[in-house]
Known about the structure:
The complex is a heterodimer of chains A (about 325) and B (about 350).
Chain A: H1 7-36, H2 44-62, H3 65-89, H4 94-117, E1 132-133, H5 143-147, E2 149-150, H6 152-170, H7 172-182, H8 184-189, H9 194-220, H10 232-242, H11 247-269, H12 276-294
Antiparallel strand pairs in A: 1-2
Chain B: E1 2-7, H1 13-37, H2 42-54, H3 57-82, H4 90-106, H5 113-142, H6 146-166, H7 199-217, H8 219-229, H9 231-236, H10 241-268, H11 279-289, H12 294-318, H13 324-344, E2 345-350
Antiparallel strand pairs in B: 1-2
Helix pairs in contact in B: 1-13, 2-3, 2-12, 3-7, 3-10, 3-11, 3-12, 4-5, 4-6, 4-10, 4-11, 5-6, 5-10, 7-8, 7-10, 7-12, 8-10, 11-12, 11-13, 12-13
Amino acid sequence: MEQVFTLTFLTGLLAAMMRMATPIIFGTLGEILAERSGVLNLGIEGIMLMGAMTGFLTTLSTGSLWLGVAAAAFTGIILSLLMALLAVWLGLSQHVSGIGITLFSTGLAMFIYRLAVGSPTNPPTVQPFTRTAVPLLSSIPVIGEAFFTQYSLVYIAFLLIPAVWVLLYRTSWGLSIRTVGENPFAADTVGINVNLVRTLCLAAGGALMGIGGAFLTLAHQNMFLIDVVGGRGWISIAMVIFGNWDPVRGAAGALIFGFLDALQLRLQGLGFNVPFHLFLIIPYLMTLIALVTMSRKASAPAGLLKPYRREEKG
Amino acid sequence: MRLTLAKRSPLPGWIQVLVPVGAILVTLALSAIPILAAGGDIRLSYASLFRGALGTRYNFLETCVKAAPLTFTGLAAAFAFRAKFWNIGAEGQLLAGAIAAAWTGIHAGSLPPAAAVPLVCIAGFLAGGAWAAIPAILKTKYKVDDVVTSLLLNYVMWHIMGYLLFGPLQMPGSSWPRSPAIAEAARFPVLLARSRFHLGIVLAAAAMLIVWFINSKTVFGYQARAVGVNPRAAAFGGINVNSVILKTALISGGLAGMAGVGETAAIHFHLLMDISPGFGYSGIAVAMLGRLHPLGTALSAFFFSVILVGAQSMSRITGVPTYIAEVIQGMSLLVMLVALLLTEYRIKAVRN
């Protein structure tokens, strides 16, 4: 038990928490952008898997990690534009469109991966991202190693949290997005192109989801496995609600999830016989409880799930 | 010039029936793109797909075997969606059913098959129904979105299963996450020689008939439809909306649970982490393609099964990866969605 109460353990735990939280932060921020404009993107799970796959294959063939990240973002944008076509422009059910995108992208990701690499006995690997130490800050004990000796994508994720917050609450674009999400008819009246705003939010969110997927295959691991995303997209959806559609609170939820995930991994690594599956239920229960306690406040964007057709007002 | 959607006058019934057929044809045409990309010869690929799924007696019966869980999860989704209870949780309910079936099946050794088989079925049905009742209660009591809760509960159940298979339900002496085998008496009998055509397939067909009966011949079926069309009007008309949603959830979850029972008691005989390759999620697409009608759902489950089984032999013969099946499934759902839209709306060009 002593080995748990050491600084090394704490440092390792916090560093792992940051890494486990990162893909979920990308997913959560991406989903918040979409939902704030009024579109629930249930395609997230499949989009993250496609991002993980294209990011990995691009890096495998070009050797460039950042090209992989860019390819993942691009894939996320393309798939989100498909989502926009179905759920925004054609006004189809957001639930079913999103599930359809996830089913389709999941199949496609596995199909393309098999096509590209065949079925070798050992899956191919890439040289993954290495950690970069932030000058000065990284020399602080514990904190320095845990928070400031990380992958660049971890820093990017954490910088995006305030960036998305500022975008939503402190810019006129953010005001447009929130108006479209809350009351598309009012937004239309003041000359905002509702469907265009929704499409752009989906696309930007899709890019973040794709990068979140690429983090898994280019930093967290160095290969593509079929269950590499493993429900992190759905967790992100839960964190959006847990965080009450606020980027900072959503990211805090992702950190709690990352902490629990890291804790069970570390304890297992030390040979403790933890029922890790029970550990991993905690974040889901947390979200369900948050849903029940928050439900009376009804804080979801009022326009969520409603396609906007000007001629069908009310 | 810009394009908009304009409401159509309702189309005649025979077109409504043809919509899924058209959607399947469009999907198969679009599937040529990934098949070509994989270097597959188009005619050979489709020929090997259909021959592999339907060409011989054994292959046809294998397709029936795969269609059974898809019929159950498809009916689960269709039954729930009809009452606008958005049950995306068939996967978790399936797992709940599989766990209950395994648990009772392991301990049913002393019973005769005539008691053991119904016991695992009832246990699985109840477990699935109980698991689906959670999102229904959260929806009716606390107004929590059922999509998100039913979806999250899939992972909760997956982890519960993981806990059980690494703990109390693990086969003694094994380091794999795998339960002991269920008793012989609890296994579904095979009904046709030289095949795996088992009791569960008959049960799936019976479930289809029962759902059809409930939907179209009972007061409850009428009420569920009324709640689906307009819950407020239904409540005003004296229907207890919450009770209808809860009952719908119990039946829907029970149907999904039966998919898990079949996989445990007729196919694997053990509980395994990968007992379901996503049948619960596929069920959503199956139900949509079947237009939420029980017969349509069973037919579209059969179509999905043709694709799943056929993709195996297509892959063997042409080298196209078997994951083409998942691509086609996802695509068919998206195509069907657009097709449904086009039955209600037409695209109209408007001059600005």
